[in-house]
């Protein structure tokens, strides 16, 4: 008889788990509480779906057990992922190692996954809420069966894959309900917090800066200790900081704020100016453009609105002749240009986050099979786990890999 697998969650990891499980000969049912599967896939990569990345390194992932994510990826590599999707019809293109579907449409990725699920005869129950998962112990060790109580009736299974997502982007279906199911089955859940998210900062002047994009280097500090840093296009909003470099450091801000620490971001608005020559370059600029005002001297160096705010922070009259700026004034201005301090009050909520940091403790999951160490026959995949990647296709790759490994092993059972 076919092994019966129930997959709770029809996102990226759940869909790949279903396909891999069905290909191994299992009878698979996806239980999804939204009205359709894969909604979050449609929003990835700004609708273009950054599927994976050719530059796959351990430091691209954050996890309580740092070696865990890469061990999972060994079971279903980037190369295997690309071949998996090529077989489904997705030709890919690389932009500096960032991999997208050739059509630049996230909908194409979802379409081929849904079509393969349909072709393999996977049962998909949408609008179906999972109320409880209970394990029924058999006569022999590891001989466990499951009953999944849902809003559409009780379902029996030989194995359950918990791929219910995190709490990030709840409008796509990630409501955190999977955490409670995991706890009910004996798992520890590390407090989930928003990650890959904007930072809300103290100060009214941000309203003047809203909409500005500029290259910058960000350094995140908690109680004076450096936690993370990144360089890229910073986006200034009416409440603080956004953009890729902000997202990359945000999970550390969330953790530090949750621990009650003082969190600041030092912003270098001139990352191309080396520290050891920055003052001389600024002084030379002031001398060369001495016939201009301080405000005019900044034109061509920084966005005009940003320059005005930084001049004010440095205590410099924008109408003062640039040639008359004293060294102390230039030093104060340079401090704002190279070491602007943003006091972080909070991160934006789950509704704005792309992923979460935290989740099911990975010490309780076997990375070679994705099987629970607490409950034989239970497998976990995707964002429900305490794994979060940086921007660039890393979170989707972990979803594909963990889903594939979970699906195959759930179908094969215990050898």
TrEMBL record:
Is Metal-binding set as a keyword in this record? no
Cofactor names from the entry are:
FAD
Ranges where the RsdA/BaiN/AoA(So)-like Rossmann fold-like domain occurs = 4-408
Ranges where the RsdA/BaiN/AoA(So)-like insert domain occurs: 194-355
Keywords, in A-Z order: FAD, Flavoprotein
| InterPro entries per UniProt | BaiN-like (IPR004792), BaiN-like_dom_sf (IPR023166), FAD/NAD-bd_sf (IPR036188), RsdA/BaiN/AoA(So)-like_dom (IPR055178), RsdA/BaiN/AoA(So)_Rossmann (IPR057661)
**Does Flavoprotein count among this protein's keywords?**
yes
- Pfam families given for it? HI0933_like, HI0933_like_1st
Top-rank taxon of the source lineage equals Bacteria
Name this protein carries in UniProt: NAD(P)/FAD-dependent oxidoreductase
Native species? Enterocloster asparagiformis
């Amino acid at each position: 008889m076919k092994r019966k697998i129930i997959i709770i969650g029809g996102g990226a990891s759940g869909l790949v788990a279903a396909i891999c499980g069905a290909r191994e000969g299992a009878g698979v049912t996806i239980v999804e509480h939204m009205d359709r599967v894969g909604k979050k896939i449609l929003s990835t990569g700004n609708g273009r779906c950054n599927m994976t990345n050719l530059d796959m390194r351990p430091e691209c992932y954050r996890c309580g057990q740092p070696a865990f994510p890469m061990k999972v990826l060994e079971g279903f590599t980037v190369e295997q992922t690309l071949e998996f999707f090529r077989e489904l019809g997705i030709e890919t293109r690389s932009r500096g190692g960032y991999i997208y579907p050739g059509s630049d449409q996230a909908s194409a990725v979802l379409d081929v996954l849904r079509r393969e699920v349909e072709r393999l005869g996977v049962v998909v129950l949408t609008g179906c809420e999972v109320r409880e998962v209970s394990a029924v112990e058999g006569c022999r060790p590891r001989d466990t069966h499951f009953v999944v109580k849902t809003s559409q009736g009780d379902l029996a299974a030989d194995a359950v894959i918990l791929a219910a997502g995190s709490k990030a982007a709840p409008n796509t279906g990630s409501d955190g309900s999977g955490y409670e199911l995991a706890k009910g089955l004996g798992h520890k859940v590390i407090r989930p917090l928003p990650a890959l998210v904007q930072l809300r900062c103290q100060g009214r002047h941000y309203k003047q800066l809203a909409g500005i994009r500029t290259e910058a280097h960000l350094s995140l500090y908690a109680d004076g200790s450096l936690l993370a840093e990144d360089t890229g296009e910073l986006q200034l909003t009416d409440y603080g900081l956004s953009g890729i470099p902000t997202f990359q450091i945000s999970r550390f801000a969330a953790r530090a704020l949750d621990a009650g620490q003082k969190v600041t971001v030092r912003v270098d608005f001139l990352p191309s100016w080396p520290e050891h020559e920055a003052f001389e370059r600024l002084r030379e600029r002031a001398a060369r453009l001495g016939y201009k005002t301080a405000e005019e001297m900044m034109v061509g160096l920084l966005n005009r609105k940003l320059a005005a705010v930084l001049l004010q922070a440095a205590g410099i009259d924008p109408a003062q002749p640039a040639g008359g700026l004293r060294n102390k004034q230039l030093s104060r201005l340079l401090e704002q240009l190279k070491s602007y301090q943003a006091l972080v009050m909070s991160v934006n909520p789950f509704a704005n986050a792309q992923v979460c940091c935290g989740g099911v403790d990975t010490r309780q999951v076997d990375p070679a099979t994705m099987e629970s160490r607490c409950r034989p026959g239970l497998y976990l995949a995707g964002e429900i786990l305490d794994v979060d990647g940086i921007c660039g296709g890393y979170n989707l790759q972990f979803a594909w890999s963990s889903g594939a490994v979970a699906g195959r092993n759930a179908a094969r059972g215990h050898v």
